[in-house]
Specification:
Blueprint lengths: L1 H15 L4 H12 L5 H19 L1 H8 L2 H20 L1 H7 L3 H17 L15 H11 L7 H11 L4 H22 L1 H10 L1 H27 L6 H15 L2
């Protein structure tokens, strides 16, 4: 069970901090010998952090549900992400077994985060329809392990001129349908994993939820202080360590 608790805590912290939860989970699952259940375990942990999103952003979610333009925007983002996810499903899943692919993803995330320093002064507090396709594409690319979904989507919105805290909120609102959809697509694998160790997965789910709440609070604080780029150095360090020590 301890392996699942560690995975849950790591998932909760890294899902929202821009350092790629998928990359951390792919490496840890390999170290713990859980690689054969990799996708199923990852989805269960993601459901825990999805719950954290509902709790942390509940006011924003209610506001979005009353805003027809925002609903259409999120649906458009989800559609683009879904097309990428379905068409590239086998390719993305194959990357979870490649530690070198994970390390490369961390390098990409690090570069993207470093560039955000130039866009911290943006003031646009609303997204436009044309932003949906770009954000959906960025979120689709983040399926690859090592590429942070929160990092690449928040950075993309900032590159498009959106104010940093607004981008933080929209990034996570847009993630809800995609994460929920991914869980539905992999429901058969989740069932098999639960049969294997239901208590362990339940513990991991709970840990990912509480760690996720803390990570959201911390990330928002870092963004407000314009310190998002500092996570880039952690990603570069992980990439180096992974390339050198993990075979």
């Amino acid at each position: 069970m301890i392996e699942y608790i560690i995975l849950g805590i790591v998932q909760g912290l890294t899902e929202f901090l821009p350092v790629s939860s998928s990359g951390h989970l792919a490496v840890l699952e390999r170290l713990f010998g859980l690689s054969e259940q990799g996708v199923a375990v990852s989805i269960v942990m993601h459901l825990g952090t999805l719950g954290a999103v509902f709790v942390f952003f509940w006011r924003d979610i209610l506001a979005a549900l009353r805003d027809r333009r925002m609903i259409v925007f999120i649906l458009a983002v989800t559609l683009v992400t879904g097309v990428i996810g379905v068409l590239g499903k086998e390719f993305f899943e194959s990357l979870f077994t490649s530690v070198k692919a994970v390390a490369a993803g961390w390098v990409v995330t690090g570069v993207i985060l470093l560039l955000t320093q130039r866009f911290m002064g943006n003031s646009r507090t609303a997204v436009a329809a044309r932003d949906a396709g770009i954000l959906g594409f960025a979120q689709g690319i983040a399926i690859m392990p090592g590429v942070s979904r929160s990092g690449i989507t928040i950075a993309t919105l900032m590159y498009l001129g959106v104010e940093k805290v607004t981008g933080f909120t929209i990034s996570f609102l847009a993630s809800i349908p995609s994460v929920a959809g991914a869980a539905l697509l992999e429901i058969k694998d989740i069932g098999g994993a639960v049969t294997g160790d239901p208590a362990g997965l339940a513990a991991g789910f709970a840990c990912s939820f509480w760690a996720g709440l803390f990570a959201l609070w911390l990330l928002k604080r870092m963004i407000v202080r314009a310190h998002l780029h500092l996570f880039a150095y952690y990603c570069f360090l992980l990439a180096v360590v992974t390339f050198i020590w993990i075979k």
